[in-house]
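Friendly challenge for the regulars: who can give me the structure tokens for this chain first? No prize, just bragging rights.
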Amino acid sequence: MRVYPIETGQLKLDGGAMFGVVPKTIWQRSNPADANNRINLTMRCLLIEDGKRLLLIDTGMGNKQSATFFEHYYLSGAHTLDCSLADLGFHRDDITDVFLTHLHFDHCGGSIQWNASKTGYEPAFKNAKYWSNQAHWKWATQPNPREKASFLTENILPIEESGQLHFVELSKERYSFVPALELEVLCVDGHTEKQMLPKIKYKGKTLVFVADLIPTVGHLPLPYVMSYDTRPLLTMSEKALFLNEAADRGYYLFLEHDAQHELCTVHHTKKGVRLQNSHTFNEVFNSF
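First reply, four minutes later:
Bragging rights claimed.
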């Protein structure tokens, strides 16, 4: 098995929204804001190669939205999903499985593209199974007013219409997904209903794709919770449980949105669990 980070581009979001009740004077130390109060974020995905399986975890924002949409979120950067795959010798048609942590547009927008005539939408990975779970799918297709702007119909319904949608079967807390890939999934509900965080045993280490539970290293302290979270108090308790386990067991956290840090480890301090070390992916796993 081989695992690769996949860069799909950067975006900007309001720093206040990203840090909730935490004052700007504090959060800007780790995430400096521009003149419009926006902070730089990335959309970093993960590719797992295992025999004949090629699994992509999340897909970034994609490029099919309107110019007005991208003015709000400022899609930028030199990286695209296709270029990142090509750098590794792959094409999107090689992808056999697309695993979506959740269906907010910055995590699943790249799953769907315009058709050749730009009259409708089609799956961007024509040979892949798309994986979500039933509870989150219902949550996303019948959205609450708070999250409606993040669950875009054009990113979601074409997956089901294509016949390529599959559901992971949830158990109480943890469950296996494609057992041959030695991958487990942690399920958390504070950010959105049934967000799925893949946990991978790789080269003798445990790698956890933390998605929006911990967007950046600046979000490690428990009260540093996004305003986007639907249940912020639940996020805090989920972070506490996870970070204590991560510190105890030496997990490597794969950061989907941190523009400066790909991986980090955490440890116990008098102030709680905090950043121990920051790493590039290749420093730890020597992928290439």
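DSSP finds nine helices and 15 strands in the chain. The two ends are 13 Å apart (CA to CA). Your move, everyone else.
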